[in-house]
Amino acid sequence: MKVFVTGATGFIGASIVRELLNNGREVRVLVRPGSDRRNLLGLDVEIFEGDLCDPASMERGLAGCDTLYHAAADYRLWTRDPAAMYRTNVDGTRTILEAALKKELAKVVYTSSVGTLGNPGDGTPGTEAAPVSFGDMVGHYKKSKFLAEREADKFIPRGLPLVIVNPSTPVGRYDVKPTPTGKIIVDFLNRKMPAYLDTGLNIIDVEDCARGHILAAERGRIGEKYILGNENLTLCRIFGLLAEISGIPAPRIRLPHTPILLAAYVNEGIARMTGREPLIPLAGVQMARKKMFFDPSKAVRDLGLPQTSTKEALQKAVEWFRANGYAR
Fold first, then answer.
1. What pLDDT shows up at residue 198?
2. Is residue 28 included in any domain, yes or no?
3. Average pLDDT, the chain
4. For residue 234, which phi and psi values (nearest 5 degrees)?
5. Which residues contact 72 (CB under 8 A, 6 or more apart)?
6. DSSP state of 5
7. How far apart are CA 318 and CA 311, in angstroms?
8. SS (H, E, C) 247-307
9. How many domains would you assign to the chain?
10. Which terminus in the chain has less CB density within 10 A, N or C?
């Protein structure tokens, strides 16, 4: 039987598709009409054009499939129309999981985010079990993903064989958009990153992240969630690794948080009037107040999540961005 993948044109989804094809699986992918399909060029997949929020469409897409990887999401740090983000991330998740329940699939893997998990923010890594509430969510993306994960939780007692994965910050090849993290790398390579904030991220090679999804379908326990992450690094250290890889000097100036936050508020106001994306996204600056460190040991132990070195993952990203014209 086939596997159905949503979000296949995106960064994580495209890597999931490649991993499935490498494993010999037949893959059907959901795409929106008119969507950017560069990440699917040359791949032996069945294209299904449909609407994530249309129940009949999703039931047709899942027909003849035994596994669903629901990786589709509207991932932006700023949007002029937050309602559209909630429709995709919350309503779309509810719709496709309802269809999966009707089709009696053997396994469903839902791609959430570490942004939905509890995190002390002081450098102590968050875990799958850390206390968290809606009030901890910063920005519409995190809020919508938090609500979407709660929707997914509701399907477990109804009998859906669901496993939730929470990717941290993937980096690597095929970041065509690019993602907010990919944009940081591109800006660094184009010498547009003169300074940095005192923050931190958990980095994982996107190919390891994709492999983690497959392992979650194969070995994950129904109703459990798994952090797909690797190494916790400060932003200063990430820039240091990028400097070693690229030969471009790392920024040495650490900016104080408060003036950047004030500038972000001003940029946000201008963006609301003009409809143009702010140069400094408010949600991104607010998130940077915490070191987004996480503990992936449960996924490493229970799933066998690979742990490619962060430097190698960043090397892949740098080479891909340069080869595809994103950076000099």
1. 87
2. yes
3. 92
4. -70, 160
5. 6, 7, 10, 13, 30, 52, 88, 92
6. E
7. 10
8. CCCCCCEECCHHHHHHHHHHHHHHHHHHCCCCCCCHHHHHHCCCEECECCHHHHHHHCCCC
9. 1
10. C
82: CATH: 3.40.50.720
Rounded CA gap, 25 and 7, in Å?
A: 17
Mean pLDDT of 139-159: 96
pLDDT in tens, 71-109: 999 988 767 889 999 999 999 999 999 999 999 999 999
pLDDT at site 254: 81
Tokens of 311: 């430097």
In a domain, 262, yes or no: no
Tell the burial category of 75 from Cβ atoms under 10 Å away from its Cβ (0-12, 13-18, 19+). buried
Burial 116-125 (b: 16+ CB within 10 A, else e): bbbbebeeeb
What the block records as the tokens of 218 is: 């194969």
